[in-house]
Amino acid sequence: MNAPTLDARADQIERAATYLESHPHSTGPEIDAASDLGCWSKVLSEMQRKGFVFHRDWRKVPTRAGRLRNKRTYTLLSRPRPTTRDLFDEPPPHQA
To answer: What are the pLDDT digits (tens) for 23-38?
Structure first.
């Protein structure tokens, strides 16, 4: 039997991004429950650092006491663009 592999942050980011593309206006706990992230706030912070762009908003949700509470929602606007070198750029100088 094979040992389980480590759930890499890149895999968590991909699951969260895929979920947010099909479920805009999701709360952090909803993203976590659907994507099994462990710590959704760290994953979203890492996504922003890597160039993902979010729209943040609020949704009113009822509490058990019958009041309304604002919950932060997230919508993925764009993924980062892959960085590629221009084929016609001069190559970097060789360092001796």
So the answer is: 999 999 999 999 999 8
Domain range enclosing 21: 9-78
Distance CA 42, CA 46 (A): 6
CATH number at residue 56: 1.10.10.10
In order of 50, 68, 77, 86, the CA distances from 83 in angstroms are: 12, 44, 19, 10
**68 in a structural domain:** yes
Whole-structure pTM value: 0.77
Examine the pLDDT at 93 and tell me if it is beyond 70. no
Question: 31 and 16 in contact (C-beta within 8 Å)?
Answer: yes
